[in-house]
Amino acid sequence: MSNVLLKVLSRQVLLAFRRPAAVLNPLVFVGVVVLMMPLGLGPEREMLGEFSPGLMWITALLASLLSVETLFRGDYDDGTLEQLVTSGHSLYFASMGYLLSHWCVAGIPLILCSGLFASMLSMPSEGIVPLMASLFAGTLVLSAFGTLGASITVALRRGGMLLSLLLLPLEVPVLILGAGVVARAIAGMPIVDLLSIMMGLAMLALALAPIAIAASIRISLEV
Amino acid sequence: MAWTWFHRLGSPPWIYAFAGRLLRFLLPLTLLLLLVGSIWGLAFSPPDFRQGNSYRIIYIHVPVSVVSLAGYYVMAIAGAVSLIWRLKVADIAMRVAAPIGAGLTFLALVTGAIWGKPTWGTWWVWDARITSMVVLLFLYLGVYALYEAYDNKALASKACAILALVGTVNIPIIYKSVDWWYSLHQPASIKFTGGTTIDPSMLYPLLLMIVAVYALYVCLILLGLRAALLESENKTKWVQQEVME
To answer: Cα(B29)–Cα(A64) distance, rounded to whole angstroms?
Structure first.
């Protein structure tokens, strides 16, 4: 029932915004990584601008990995997750609630601030709005995979590294398409087709991931 | 209905004995096929007009790549069977398939690199197929790592089955996107010999090697399955009897 979806979503978002660190930490992480880029690659604007689509997208991938680790941790530790499973409400919609709440807390702020970070990397101005559009679709997929990874590894003691190993190969298409959208926009080519594919993937992920997430939550609770 | 054969496959002692009987003739057959195929291919097939003799590693590289790709689906199907029918044996088969598949993928990448150096002058190139194989390797390693991370092995298998199925849905998407990515970034020089027809004198040893490596894969899975069954069922009577012999 979508009631549980809204309840879980609003609860998670409320909890996250009560602790601003949950929203700000991923953004600060992106900022620090964006700082590392010219330090590692050199400050020439042209070169940075050329690499900026890929760099921004890789940073987004890493930030989503970071922010997803503790998604279920609190609810798992204090028993809320168990209550949710035994409550009889649809675990599919509850999982979707967690997924969307992660997107609201980690994805939307990133989308809004991506323009700033992209400019710091000298991204040409034609790329900025396409970057935000590609992030809009892509972060949904990243949240879907991230929530899935978090639900599989929440019961494990040292799940952090494993999470990255599990999620990054699965997120390869998002990276390729996302960076591709921005690169094509900068080159002046049309991007509607690619963006449609990304949104299609996002809708697919949104519809199918909660099935796997619900099954993984049940598994993790039995550990 | 005649589903008894299916559920019989799910019984550890039955499949242990069945695998043993199968291996008794399959293992020598596999070794024979591998021997004949590799000697035919590596020694007796004619040199390629463009690449000379360095192409011969194709007789190892292509079969191993084909089987590593198929092996992922074997692993995923075993996982699906174990989730749907709750067969412990399918669990164990999936768990056994993961490192075997990873090893084959790694071998494919290494033989590909060995092929690349004398032929195109570079050990490594980021083209569509190699990149997809690297992603496949990480998918395999992810399943294996997830299994090792759980202490409760029954739950570990369920989690791995879910991960393998998610990967299965993803593999066509990953392959298509890497293909498209490569068509964007294609460097001018390196191209595989795509589109050329292959001479029968080279084709037959290749097909033989493909069959041989498939047979090898089945043998490895059966051997691993038997060993894993002995390990996980070690408290049951039939295992005690087996070990006593």
So the answer is: 50
**A2-18 vs A20-41: helix axis angle to the nearest 10?**
70
For B56, which DSSP code? Answer: G
Q: Which residues of A touch B184 (CB under 8 A)?
A: 180, 183
Does B152 lie at the interface with A, CB-CB under 8 angstroms?
Answer: yes
- Residue B162 touches chain A, beta carbons under 8 Å: yes
Residue B188 has pLDDT above 90, yes or no: no
Q: Output the pTM of the full model.
A: 0.88
Q: Does B80 touch chain A (CB under 8 A)?
A: no
User: Mutation test of the interface with chain B: which of A134, A147, A151, A219, choosing the one with the most B Cβ atoms within 10 A?
Assistant: A219
Chain segment B200-216, per-residue pLDDT in tens: 777 888 889 999 999 99
Phi, psi of B52 (to 5 degrees): 70, -135
Cβ contacts (< 8 Å) between B155 and chain A: which residues? 219, 222-223
**Mean pLDDT value across chain B:** 85
The better pLDDT of the pair A33, B194 is held by A33
Domain that holds residue A8: 2-222
Q: Report yes or no: B168 at the A interface, CB cutoff 8 Å.
A: no
N- to C-terminal Cα separation, chain A: 27
Candidates A174, A209, A167; CA nearest to A195 is A174
Residue-wise pLDDT for B20-57, tens only, equals 899 999 999 999 999 988 888 888 877 776 777 777 88
Residue A1 is predicted with a pLDDT of 54
Domain residue ranges in chain B: 56-244
ipTM: 0.87
Q: What is the pLDDT of residue A37?
A: 92
| B174–A contact, CB cutoff 8 A | yes
Q: Give Cα separations from B76 to B96, B143, B160 (angstroms).
A: 12, 10, 9
- For residue A207, the tally of other CB atoms under 10 A from its CB is 12
Q: How many beta-carbon pairs below 8 A join chains A and B?
A: 75
Residue B118 or residue B65, greater confidence: B65
Task: Count Cβ atoms below 10 Å from residue B11 Cβ, excluding itself.
Answer: 15
Q: How many independent structural domains does chain A possess?
A: 1
* Nearest-by-CA chain A residue for B143: A166
- Of the residues A154, A172, A193, A223, the best mutation for testing chain B's interface (the one with the most B CB atoms within 10 Å of its CB) is A172
CB contact (8 A) between residue A165 and residue B142: yes
What pLDDT score does B1 carry?
55
